[in-house]
Amino acid sequence: MTFPYSPAIPNPPNDPADDVSIMQTNAGSISSILAVDHVGFNLSAGGQHKQITFNSNNPPAPPVSPPVLFTNNQDGAGNNLPGSLAELFFYSGSAAHSANQYNVTGTNGSVLLPMGII
């Protein structure tokens, strides 16, 4: 999904009439971006989430602060699962996380549950 946008508009040396069509494109793109997964402008629930859509396979690079919610096609041990659907993961902290850090016998009080929930 792409949205056309020209950040240098309005351009001060231009006659404002010259930039009108580009400004309208920018305004339309802003409206379209906000309406993705949200209730759009001029509606009773405007701005509220309808859903949350993630791109697949977008794990963050540590350190992760603030915490990040993301999707990935990997199991908790970091094994890539070809052809699998993206699962939801949550990372928080200053080091790379692995399944070995999150087990019931560990001393840190965390556990890795199915679907990457810690």
For the secondary structure, the number of strands is: 2
Beta-strand content: 5-15%
The tally of helices reads 1
Helix-strand category: alpha+beta
Low-confidence stretches: none
Q: What is the domain total for the residues?
A: 2
Morphology: elongated
Largest sheet: 2 strands, antiparallel
| pLDDT averaged residue by residue | 76
Radius of gyration: 21 Å
Helix content: 10-25%
H/E series: HEE
Question: Span between N and C termini?
Answer: 31 Å
Order of strands side by side in the largest beta sheet? 1-2
Textual characterization of the structure:
The protein is of the alpha+beta class and 118 residues long. The protein has 2 domains: 1-51, no CATH class; 64-116, no CATH class. It contains 1 helix and 2 strands; from the N terminus they run H-E-E. The mean pLDDT is 76.
